[in-house]
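Progress against Task 2.4 (sequence-to-structure conversion) is shown through the following example record, which the project officer requested during the mid-term review.
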Amino acid sequence: MRIRKLLDALFFIGDEQENASGPSWKYRRKLIYGGYRLGFAMVIFGALTFLVDQWSVGTTLITGGVSLITIILTAYTATATFEDVKLRHSSTEQKEP
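Structure tokens generated for the chain above:
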């Protein structure tokens, strides 16, 4: 149980409140943080294999982990921005008669 709390704190995972003004990102964030954990583990394992003289495996794992984290962050930011713009646009249409 303590290890789970430590991992959740390490990857910034916490209990989320329901958002009344828009969609809940609870499940999407869990998927994103799961992918982030995988990418982080790939980088760490790649660094360990790099030190053990497995240069090609280490380089591939580090490159793949960094790429995975970059793709996740880009997709998360893009979808959050799209969702915010969509919500603002629909709320302004509802306010105008």
